Amino acid sequence: MKLKGTKFQLKVWEEIKKIPKGSVKTYKEIACILNKPNSSRAVANACAKNPLIIEIPCHRVIRSDGFLGGYSGKGGVQKKGQLLIEEGFTKFKYD
What we know:
Layout: H1 7-17, E1 25-26, H2 27-33, H3 40-48, E2 61-62, H4 76-86
Helix pairs in contact: 1-3, 2-3
């Protein structure tokens, strides 16, 4: 399946695919990697538009303050936390 999205969304999704299981990056870290340090919100929006929840593991992207942020997959933020726990990452906060 060829991904459809803006150039920025495609770059965000490619960066997210690089995050290993059991690890996370923040929306801000991804924005900085893409040389768009003030684009944390745009990174979060790209995550929300992710068409391939499993192949592009947006659950591995969290807020800079350690809270999970949102999750557009089935089950919402609770599912995001569950997926991270299953991968061995537990250093996050619930809202």
